[in-house]
Amino acid sequence: xxxxxxIAPLAIRGDVARRDAEGRCYxxxxxxxxxxxxxxxxxxxxxEEVLLADCADLIRDCSVVGFPxxxxxxxxAVAIVQLQDAAAEAGxxxxxxxxxxxxxxxxxxALAAVRIVRTPEDVPHGPTGKVLKxxxxxxxAGSPAGQ
Length: 147
Description:
Distance between the termini: 41 Å
Helix content: 25-40%
CATH superfamily of the largest domain: ANL, C-terminal domain
Structural class: alpha+beta
Oligomer: single chain
CATH class of the largest domain: Alpha Beta
CATH architecture of the largest domain: 2-Layer Sandwich
Number of helices: 4
Shape: globular
Largest sheet: 3 strands, mixed
């Protein structure tokens, strides 16, 4: 196993991780949440971490999910975001620009789109407070990735 390869025992359990040259392990994502882009797999967890930390003035909560692009394009990364109260009037274009600027700073892939959700029903969480990405994908699957 190379130092940069995924760690097999974690993959069996549905997690994707990597080990660096010093032997430290890094959790990258759940296998069901990896976005299959035309440029290769894209891990949503690091993108979400940047959005929540570096765009905290705009974004209260977010999930990055993959939606089908045009034929031959693979999936496109879309952030489903709940805005901070102080940023309630922000538009998707403003959030997308801020998000992609932050992601570029960290060398991460840009988002194709941002969808803003405004009601608690559009932001499903489980009983422990964990984001239910499967539910978010299902609720937003009807609209094109670019919207």
